[in-house]
Amino acid sequence: QVQLVESGGGLVQPGGSLSLSCAASGSFFYVFSMGWYRQAPGKQRELVATSLSGSSTNYADFVKGRFTISRDNAKNTVYLQMNSLKPEDTAVYYCNAVVRASTVGPLMAFWGQGTQVTVSS
After folding, report:
1. Residue 29 class from Cβ within 10 Å (0-12 exposed, 13-18 middle, 19+ buried)?
2. Cβ(26)–Cβ(1) under 8 Å?
3. pLDDT tens-digit map of 90-105
4. What is the bridge-based pairing of β-strands 10-12 and 115-119?
5. Strands 46-52, 57-59: parallel, antiparallel or unpaired by DSSP?
6. How far is CA 112 from CA 14, 38, 95, in A?
7. Sign of the CA dihedral with 53 first, then 64, 113, and 18 last
8. 48-73: per-residue pLDDT in tens?
9. Exposure string for 43-81, b = 16+ CB within 10 A, e = fewer
10. DSSP 74
């Protein structure tokens, strides 16, 4: 099992910044990717950004140039720096990790409990 503990989030004014972090712990052999998704009320969960085991990153178009994902592999922690926040960024942000539990096991996805980000004046 893998536990994902998120921190950060909160209330910020439009144009402001917030930082999220997510630490993975538990029993696993290899972390394939870590990333962030979000879900606004009445909408489906959507990809925000992901970081693969190398240095490859992937961003949703609506956050390119504003959000930056980074990862500390030694700590199994992923960060999301969010700048120039907009009211439409308001959502619950979920951490996601895809891991391989053993050398020959399948990739498995795990989710954090979510953290609220509210952008409002």
Report:
1. exposed
2. yes
3. 999 999 999 998 888 8
4. parallel
5. antiparallel
6. 26, 11, 5
7. positive
8. 999 997 779 999 999 999 999 999 98
9. eeeeebbbbeeeeeeebeeebeeebebebeeeebbbbbe
10. T
